[in-house]
Amino acid sequence: MASSSSSTPSPNPIITSNGSGGGGSGPPSAGASGQTSNNSSTNAGQQQTSGSNNPANDTPVSSERIACWITELLSSTTRENALMELSRKREKVVDLAVLLWHSFGSVAVLLHEVISVYPYITPPTLTAQQSNRVCNALALLQCIASHPETRSLFIQANIPLFLYPFLNTKSSTRPFEYLRLTSLGVIGALVKTDETEVINFLLTTEIIPLSLRIMQSGSELSKTVATFILQKILADDCGLNYICQTFDRFSHVAMVLGRMVLQQQKEASGRLLKHIIRCYLRLSDNARAREALRSCLPDCLKDHTFDAVLKEDQSTKKWLSQLLLNLETPVPTNANNSQQQTSGNNVVSQQTQPASPLGMG
């Protein structure tokens, strides 16, 4: 996509098929990735990225060399190469996130790289080389977001907010798609840990409407990672209650999921369909949402439209069956009344919050 001097591995969101835990599916990993999935059949053809196949990347790196690259981030003349090398080697250095966070000026440099491309978003003039360079910086931010010692510090500093302008872009050119996908990978790295602290932080931001927008208009990979992020937010009780708290929020999510299901009829993706079904399944855990889904769940999920797509995916078939079973089960009156009362109290408590400019307030 760009010259070799600034090239990075192609973005590679990996979605594994794992039914355990609150989130269900395994985490996507976007950005200058090269990771492989536990589900090789799902990810066939995606593992051939330049970073993971480069033999040099398998060579152990000395701590002195890592320290040298981190120091070189501070100089504008050596920064681009340092970004590329650290991005390529980040999987091999266990505590790279800690070193970056506590090294003088390193995080500020990464944020500078992010901010420096803002002027090229509108109008959309971002070049492939610029996209590759900022994506190397984003890959290092994803490394920080993934590490247990730096994750809380990462969100306390509100660093994810610096990525939202990239998620809000609409250009379908490859540099912008690469930028969106890598930015989604940073958020995916946060939510994959199923930590309520992360979900509570994201709920104060615009990540839900931004994800819903990408779910409607992005590439298949971007749609998959964005849907995964929504699924992980729903997996947390705070996220589920937030989305089901008002009719506008629920209806927006249900509308987007419904449109995606209809698109799947034309060109099905088992990986993406899996996450759509998991979102519906989690929504059905809420009594009021379950009542609404009885009338708005797409008919093609109720018949055998996707049997061929899900033929080899027993986990997703099980989740779809459970979803349909949930919708057949009557909601106990006392549980429904209790949930409505709780939801009403939550609405009152949040009336002082400003409305979201993207319609999810």
UniProtKB/TrEMBL annotation:
User: What is the superkingdom listed in this entry's lineage?
Assistant: Eukaryota
Any single Pfam family the record assigns to this protein: Rcd1
Q: Which InterPro entries match?
A: ARM-like, ARM-type_fold, CNOT9
Q: Please provide the Gene Ontology terms (biological process) for this protein.
A: mRNA catabolic process; regulation of translation; regulatory ncRNA-mediated gene silencing
Residue ranges for the region (Disordered) are 1-61, 331-361
Asked if the keyword tRNA-binding belongs to this entry, the reply reads no
One GO cellular-component annotation of the UniProt record comes to: P-body
Which PANTHER family has this protein been placed in? CCR4-NOT TRANSCRIPTION COMPLEX SUBUNIT 9
Family designation = Belongs to the CNOT9 family.
**Under which name does UniProt file this protein?**
CCR4-NOT transcription complex subunit 9
Q: Which organism is it from?
A: Adineta steineri
